[in-house]
Amino acid sequence: PMRAFNSLNRVGASALSNEIAAGSVFFAVGGIWWLVAVLGKMPPVLGKVWLLISMALGVAFIWAMTLVYQIDTVPTWYNGYTTLAFFLTAFLCGPVFAALLLRIARVPFCSVTFASISGLALVVCVTVIVLQGLSLSTIHSSVQQASHLAPDYGMLQVWRIVLLAAGLGCWLCPLIRRREPHTVGLLLGVVLVLAGEIIGRGLFYGLHMTVGMAVAG
């Protein structure tokens, strides 16, 4: 802990340092906005500008996280699927979690718009899963085949899609019937979506492999 600030010594040169710096700035700016807003001291105009800045910093933080895993000696991570995976997690989990919190706080918001974003993210997620699965057969080293790293890749991804679809369904189905989703339903949806993304993250780390003597793909 005493050397924690040493991680910031290489900001601009190290992806990990950039991630820590981006995360620190995002949580600091977002946390200050939340605190001042809760205390009722935030001017409306400044609050909107501050909120937009916080959102932009959040996007920058996610981008910085993706760069940590863009390692050219790890061919299964060194591609656009890694970047998409991180942003898709935000679009899948973020809106439904926000809907739950706003529902608990009884704050009105446009559920249909945000639910549509998550629904579109699910379609993109399924597309990425299929394309990435096909690409694994083209990545190998002299001693290792990427498709052998996760023998149950297909089955686990199916379970992931089922959980994501079921979780978003807890939010979407009431909206389709022109009803407001219940808090319990949204909570269940958040749990299911998180479970699906945990499977996805486990598969992501399970696909780690190094270049070795040669790589094709």
Automatic annotation (TrEMBL):
The UniProt record lists the keyword Coiled coil: no
Domain of life: Bacteria
Xref: InterPro entries: DmsC (IPR007059)
Residue ranges crossing the lipid bilayer per the database entry: 20-37, 49-69, 81-102, 114-136, 156-176, 183-204
One cellular component term from this protein's GO annotations in UniProt: plasma membrane
Pfam (any one): DmsC
A single MF term (Gene Ontology): dimethyl sulfoxide reductase activity
An example Gene Ontology biological process: anaerobic electron transport chain
Keywords for this protein: Membrane, Transmembrane, Transmembrane helix
The protein's name in its UniProt record: DMSO reductase, anchor subunit DmsC
Lineage, broadest ranks: Bacteria, Pseudomonadati, Pseudomonadota, Gammaproteobacteria, Enterobacterales
